[in-house]
Amino acid sequence: MKPRPFAPRASASSQRGRGRRATKTGGRHRTGRRRSCRRAGMWSSGEQILVRRIVGGRIWFAHGATVVQDEPELVVFWLPQGAAIAAPEGEILHQWTLSVRPYEPASVLMLSPGDRAHALLADEHSLERGWYVNLETRTRTPRGIDIDDHYLDLWAYPDGRWEWLDEDELAEALEVGAITPEGAEAARAEGERVVAEWPFPTGWEDWRPPPEWEPPPLPEGWDVV
Q: At what angle do helices 167-176 and 181-197 cross, to 10 degrees?
């Protein structure tokens, strides 16, 4: 996953969602919806956690996030514009350093569905621009979530088109052994499942944080893996 603003990229190779209409909606948050039984150790809405993306055993991104929802079927957390983020300077799979600076793109919700190997990124512009699908697996830690990035991602457009992202990173990861052929195949299959399901719009595009929520800090010790 390259560091990039949450925005689409033009591409002549964009494809159409497989037999799905772009108007189909995925899981929505509904007032009064029956809630699943909560597991011990789950977070409360408004709780601040540490989120890190790990590449090859090293931190690629780290930032605080505020929990919006923590349910077995969907975890949602919020990264607001202006929050402190440790972001990379350099190239993935090579050498990079991390510097702490304000998060500049639009505030974003990260939707992590159950034990699926992807997350959906939605913001206030998604209905016009689209959604970033990050292919990943997640591990809960005592402080938050560590994300194992699978290099390949995709962009889903509001009109039903979609395109792969970062295929060059996946190819290089395969070449240097950072991901196995089986892992790469599994990541691509997960992306194809998302396209087939077409869970867009997510139902979270109009969500706004409570006015008292402040940007979460980058906790001390964020750089200890």
A: 160
